[in-house]
């Protein structure tokens, strides 16, 4: 007996399976969300889970990929704005503010990539 069959709906405009942008975003948050929380924990008044919750809300079935893209771009802007803000370094960060800023830029670049992919899907 053969395995179960799955049916995928392909967007005729892009040729990409519907829901791909949401899946990629959720997989990214699953893999890297705790690191984002750790990084954002260095900034007063910024909670990583609140940023993740905003992105997750944009992954809801009722949301469009454009809404997801806009939410991801807002996260990019917020992350990049933190480069100018004072942070409360952890002991491992002693004298390494550049590493914190590099982490912010890395996450911003990944969210930008996800936003761009969502716009194209």
UniProtKB/TrEMBL annotation:
It comes from the Bacteria. It comes from Tropicibacter oceani. This is Uncharacterized protein.
